[in-house]
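Thread: Newbie trying to understand structure tokens

Hi all, I'm a second-year student working on a class project, and my supervisor (Dr. K.) asked me to get a predicted structure for one chain before our next meeting. I've only ever worked with sequences, so writing a 3D structure as a token string is new to me. If someone could post the tokens and maybe explain what I'm looking at, I'd be very grateful. Here's the chain:
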Amino acid sequence: MDTILEVINAWLIALGFALAMLGSWTLGWRHGQRLPPEAGEDPGAKFTDAAMALLGLLLAFTFSMALGRHDTRRLAVVAESNAIGDFYTCASLLKEPHRSRLQSVIEEYARQQLDTPYERLQGEAAEKATQRCLALFNRMTDLVAKAVDEGTPIALALTNTLNEVTSSNASRLAAFEEKLPWSIVVLLFLSSLVPAFLIGEKQGLSKKVHLSGSISFIGLVTLVIFVTLDLNQPRRGLIRVSQESLERVIQSMAK
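---
Reply by user tm_fold:
Sure, no problem. This is what the structure looks like when written as tokens:
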């Protein structure tokens, strides 16, 4: 189920939600037309209100979760950019030829991280990108090891900043794997159908169709669901994580 939610575009899933809600509203309206009119206060209105409140709660809950995961991905890119910048600054304190060699590999690594859209890669493409990243890690590790063997006075700082680069990259990749559980999406789907059915039933019972209000309700719910699902699809969504922090780091290396 997680794979299906990741492969299908968010707008297609949201469109499915909209069609399902419209169909549920139509079924409710037809069912309400068959019911005899009720005299006095309608106790069923309380169930409609409760279903609407539950839908609003679930929409707010899932949107908050998706937005939180998107923010985590953004912060992971910033953390990796800072780690690369710190490593580059630390390498500038080395003596030649270690300084220029290590800084050259760090800049190459930073450019690769900027040019490699990890959030959109899957399968074999993601594996190849990981192997290229690992090769650069090995090169940086070898250069740091040589500098340490020659007794550089910044051995501890150099090792720590290298470790921070590897750790931040792992955290960034892990952040792009964090998505909403499929069970929550299914629950959101079901909770959107019930209010639509009850609203249609009440309109059918009263023999009055509030088409503009019903369409507006379905449209707004669909829009919120679309944004939520788009935030939940870092590999193919319209809302992307900014790479501006990496761009600034690379620009500072060119100075």
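A couple of things are worth pointing out once you decode it. The chain has nine helices and no strands. The chain has a mean pLDDT of 83. Feel free to ask follow-ups in this thread.
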